[in-house]
Amino acid sequence: MGQAKQRATLKDHVSTYNFAAVASAVRRLSVAASSQLGSDCYMLSALAQELLKRDGVFAQLRAGYAGWRCGSGDSDVILHCPTGSIPPQCGVVYHVWLEIVDHIFDVTTFSLPQKARELDLLDGGSTTVDWHPDYLFVPKSTVSSVRDVVQKHAGLYFYERQSQVEHLIFGVAPDLDPEDVDAALTLYQHQDMVVLGPNNINLRGT
Known about the structure:
- With 206 residues, the chain is of the alpha+beta class.
- It is built from seven helices and six strands.
- The chain has helices at residues 3-16, 19-33, 41-54, 112-123, 146-151, 163-172, 178-189, and strands at 60-69, 77-80, 95-100, 103-106, 136-139, 157-161.
- The longest helix is centred in the N-terminal third of the chain and has 15 residues, at 19-33.
């Protein structure tokens, strides 16, 4: 099969695929059991990639800079990219997501309120999070510039792949824990399963 035909076949598959079910599975696992809730973008994206792979959907891990406009106030922006407002103790600032054909699939946007709380503790700010979708599956053409995310209205998002960041992050990233993969697969297959974990949070799948 030629490359163009393969791409067309994948687009057809993607147009009918239930990405919400994948996002729900990894979200419920993270909320119940993640020890790095709000900072586990690599693990969640890698788990989602594994679930997609089992269904024949090819997704590529991407790393780089990202940002989200979460409210209407001047400070209601979450940025994972180098700025003067990010304290040095944050270390390397980055985000991990998936790309599928010409779409971005980010299964971590449910945790924007947690990210905001953590950043506010670091910089003393106050971030209102009115917009925090459970996940994003959006055409890459809808990605805004970081300037527009900072200056405009809630609901805008910014993603920029950085090959140097990918080399740094993916070069040291651990393999997925088989138990985490099994748990995510079980949650994917049972969308109404109640999740109990160390974080003492129960959440039903949507």
